[in-house]
Amino acid sequence: MHPRRPDGFDGFGYGGVGRDELGPGSRPSGSGSELGSWVTSPPDIPGSRNLHWGEKTPPYGAGTPPGGAGPNEEANLGAGGPRAEQLNRFAGFGIGLASLFTENVLAHPCIVLRRQCQVNYHARNYHLTPFTVVNIMYCINKTQGPRALWKGMGSSFIVQGITLGTEGIISEFTPLPRELSHKWNLKQIGGHLLLKGLTHVIAMPFYSASLIETVQSEIIRDNPGILDCVKEGIGRVVGLGVPHSKRLLPLMVLTFPTALHGVLHYVISSIVRKLVMFFLKRDNSHSLPSESSTSVQSMLDAYFPELIASFAASLCADVMLYPLETVLHRLHIQGTRTIIDNTDLGYEVLPINTQYEGMKDCINTIKREEGMQGFYKGFGAVIVQYTLHMAVLQLTKIIYSTLLQNVS
Q: Which stretches are tagged as biased composition: Low complexity (predicted)?
């Protein structure tokens, strides 16, 4: 079967669920699904099956004189043949794995500090720049150890799994489309966005539990179990087994802001992804690869546009919706008796004792008491997160480009 080119998983007309859909502060979208797609079905790469455009590669060893290398052997080792096919799979797996590791593991300390700053209404230092963020992360690591920066990572994966499973089940038993065809209409778009909103609403109590694990100070909490996120999420729904105060907001109050953030994040990231892919494909189509550079450059061009588009889509959505995310996190954490780290000092702890009545009251209170910059507390962590992600992508591209050139 001829291999297919992997498509994006977040935009209109694409299937699957990306990282942008998994809740506020999640990692850039689609990497895990793309990774599995690349490993099983590497994209069409000019030169991997053809020596020239439209010219089929002769079979390996065809025309080889006895006792010597034939004229096609070098071509099959470089631009085509089984060895090139293995290089394609290796490159796709490695590039996808590097992006997946960066989004879900390496960037997690930035997400931890970002969320702690967002819910810390006491903070005098807003950490709007990456310089103060790096300093406070160093202080927390020094006083509590590295574990304090990776707390809640397991529950984040659980929430992602719940979200993916929920969306699949709803689309299977309802007429709501999980993906849009190229001939979409307004009714299909409405059903598709309704599916995304319902998915976020159902995953909402588990996201709240994951958020608490992420911001809770390591100094005062016990070692959480792997499935504590699920247990506490179910307890939040039925109202049992979860310590809370009278200030805890009902899930009905959290439904609208949670669905709003999730749907807007999906729409923005989908549009940006489409635009970036359009411009990247247009630029690539203007420059036809030469015979000498086909096998290396086209292999990189096949994988990296998807990663760059996912990176840009997630970055734009996170930046544009950061104030709404700050409000959403404060509403989710209120009344849960959560104690966070002091983000001004890097040591000591602070209780969260807000008394917001809802989304509108939270917005007005932040604007009145903390100013407009209060909506962007911890924004420096976003800069660090995406700078780190871009650096890993560029480093991976350089490494694979060098390896492929040497092998070719």
A: 23-37
Scan for tokens 């189509």, then name that residue.
285
Q: How far apart are CA 96 and CA 37, in angstroms?
A: 10
Q: How far apart are CA 396 and CA 100, in angstroms?
A: 12
**198/86 Cα distance (integer angstroms):** 41
Helix (H) or strand (E) holding 210: helix 186-215
Closest CA to 128 of 396, 327, 362, 322: 322
What are the structural domains, with CATH classification, of the chain?
19-45+82-407 (1.50.40)
**Rg, the chain, Cα only:** 24
Question: Would you place residue 269 in the very low, low, confident or very high pLDDT band (cuts 50, 70, 90)?
Answer: very high
The torsion defined by the Cα of 123, 373, 142 and 213, in degrees rounded to 10, comes to 80
Q: Whole-prediction pTM value?
A: 0.76
244: left (phi over 0), alpha (psi -120 to 50) or beta: beta
Which pLDDT value is given to residue 93? 72
pLDDT, tens digit (0-9, with 9 covering 90-100), for 27-55 = 444 444 333 443 334 444 333 433 333 34
Task: In whole angstroms, give the CA distance from residue 241 to residue 228.
Answer: 11
Separation CA 98–CA 395 (nearest Å)? 10
DSSP annotation of 19 reads: G
Q: What residues have CB less than 8 Å from 74, skipping those under 6 apart?
A: none
For residues 58 and 81, give the distance between their C-alpha atoms in angstroms, rounded to a whole number. Answer: 9
